[in-house]
Design brief:
7 helices; mainly alpha; about 180 residues
Length: about 180
């Protein structure tokens, strides 16, 4: 559950930024404060609908892949990625108050979304790690001071020195492992 929440949160924040940029760059798209709600829709669509659409389109394109040249196959793959992004964009516009004017309001934002998600893939690990740290701090602060101070067996836990600093665990996680 923790990983799902962190993944949603990191992608949500990034999608808000991408939607605001789309609203600033394209005069045919009006986003404004609606980016907050539109990003919820965009994030849910990216997490659940996008993988489904990609698999359906890839299966249908794979049936005729033998009939195409190498260049033709690349063109088909790029076109399928664009169509998936276009469907995600249409769903986002349809279910949110984002408004678009004309053809370019439909045609260009999927390209910018695609560019944004390529950048997101590059910074995804850093965003998830930071979001995980915030999540752990918030989850750790919900404990009462007596729960935080008293170990489960009544003895003070020994500090772990055998773990490397890059083990991916937060201090809270290390403490919890020590209590086990």
């Amino acid at each position: 559950m923790r990983n799902g929440i962190i993944r949603f949160g990191a992608l949500y924040v990034f999608n808000v930024a991408v939607l605001l940029i789309i609203g600033l760059v394209l005069p045919s798209v009006s986003v404004g404060w609606h980016a907050l709600w539109a990003s919820v829709i965009l994030t849910l669509a990216a997490l659940f609908i996008k993988p489904l659409l990609k698999s359906v389109f890839r299966k249908s394109a794979a049936r005729s892949a033998a009939d195409r040249t190498k260049t033709g196959e690349k063109v088909v793959q790029y076109a399928l990625v664009y169509v998936v992004e276009l469907i995600i964009w249409v769903i986002t516009v349809w279910l949110s108050p984002v408004s678009i004017d004309g053809f370019w309001g439909f045609a260009l934002p999927p390209l910018l979304l695609l560019l944004g998600w390529v950048i997101y893939d590059q910074v995804d690990d850093v965003l998830r790690r930071k979001a995980g740290d915030v999540y752990d701090r918030v989850a750790g602060s919900r404990r009462t001071p007596t729960e935080a101070a008293a170990p489960a067996n009544g003895a003070a836990p020994a500090a772990r020195t055998d773990l490397e600093p890059d083990d991916g665990l937060t201090p809270e996680q290390r403490r919890m492992l020590d209590e086990l």
